[in-house]
Amino acid sequence: MESAALIIVLVIVLALFFDFTNGFHDTANAMATPIATGALKPKVAVLLAASLNLVGAFLSTEVAKTISGGMIREEQLSPDIFPPIIFAGLIGAITWNMLTWLLGLPSSSSHALFGGLIGATLVGVGASAIDTGVVLSKVILPALIAPLTAGVIAFIVTKIAYGVTRRYDMKADGRDGFRWGQIFTSSLVALAHGTNDAQKTMGVITLALITVGWQSSANPDPQLWVVFACAITIALGTYMGGWRIIRTLGKGLTDVKPAQGFSAETSTAATILASSALGFALSTTQVASGSVIGSGLGRRGSTVRWNTVGRIMIGWVLTLPAAGAVGAAAALIVVWLGGWGVAVDAVIAVVIVLGLFLRSRRDEVTSANAMSEVADSGAAVKVPRKPGPTRRQRRLDREKIGKDA
Fold this sequence. Notes:
Oligomer: single chain
Number of strands: 2
Family: Belongs to the inorganic phosphate transporter (PiT) (TC 2.A.20) family.
Number of helices: 14
Region (Disordered): 377-405
Main location: membrane
Subcellular location: Membrane
Distance between the termini: 95 Å
Transmembrane segments: 42-60, 81-99, 111-130, 139-162, 224-243, 309-334, 340-358
Helix content: over 70%
């Protein structure tokens, strides 16, 4: 009983550390575009995001219930084996989060978590313990549909924003009023992030508690202390700031203007809030990236740079299987070594995290230099400095020529 309690404590600690990495990994989702356009100062933006992540974590538990009472069939699992399997899955998720953070790649913390848990469960228990229907309907399909939906919405909103303000076409700063709107929309994204991403760690901890009989499976809602712990941890992680990913998402995707940023954030927040209400555990990173690209395409004269889009999509595609592979390897150590396997996994996890962190210190990205250069990958959406005339301008030019003739 003492060893089981110790493992549960380790699972909770590791889950909260994942929650922390989720916070600094996904700060870019809410705050990259307002920082890029100058709507908010970097440190102010991150503090605002942290506060609203904290509030959002208390607003919904639907996503938490998807994980704690849906994705994995806990009734088929032994209380002795499943906590170590969750531990192994979290190692897979954290390893991928840290690696993509080091590379500045805006991958999905959510899919890293799902991949780690699925890979560890497949090795430790078997495919029968995974509810493939829930995985497909609540994880895979939203991953395919949500970024496309967000991109389309952002494209339409950008077209509308530029259309209703076209009298400012000849003024370089004519649309700066959207910067004020960005403060509201980016705040809404941060709030939405709390309603979705913080819930995933709550679901993992609740699942562990249910598995060992410390919580009834008839009530998959996270306990109040779990909600508080996860909310505070993700807010703290957000405050630390994911400056590497902010640089990629804020400048590497497209030369973001205030009207675009407003449109992208509106689309991101709407998509995440709707998904949270339905219990869809989607990737806020994918939704934010899709929105930024859609808003870029909404600007007149823009074209896609597919090399950058392809780089980001590779990260999307690789996240779940890569985290699953690490989770499966960690679970294999548990299967081979039993209780000692958990200790070995813990040591390996500490070594990996410390190694990646120390490597990041060689090329540190902070609030002071996060937006100082365009990410190496270039722009995903190319917009000419002087877009061609609009249809209205062409019509006026033809009328003028006709009068002169």
